[in-house]
Amino acid sequence: MAKSTNIKSTLIIRYHAGQDEKGKEIYKNQRINKVKPAAGDDDVFAVATVLSKFLDDPVVEVFRQNDNLIANE
To answer: Quick count: other Cβ atoms within 10 Å of Cβ 48?
Structure first.
């Protein structure tokens, strides 16, 4: 039977960076690596909220990307 173990977690903050010359919306991502895999989603979101205050542009979405190791037991 296979077992999945979360080994890495990354916080991604997507923010609106304006428009290009044709009026198309521009979005950028700020990635924060080395988030503790055991951290709760509420805690990760709280960190994203605090970090968003340092961005000049409005935050659109917050993502959490988990990398899992799947091994046969």
So the answer is: 20
**Which residues form the domain of 14?**
2-72
Distance from C-alpha of 73 to C-alpha of 59, rounded to nearest angstrom: 41
Cβ-proximal residues to 44 (8 Å cutoff; 6+ apart), any chain: 9, 11, 35, 62, 64
Tally of domains within the chain: 1
Q: What is the pLDDT of residue 14?
A: 98
pTM of the model: 0.86
Comparing CA positions, the residue from 13, 11, 68 lying closest to residue 43 is 11
Q: Dmax over Cα atoms in the chain, in whole Å?
A: 55
Distance of CA 8 to the CA centre of its chain: 12
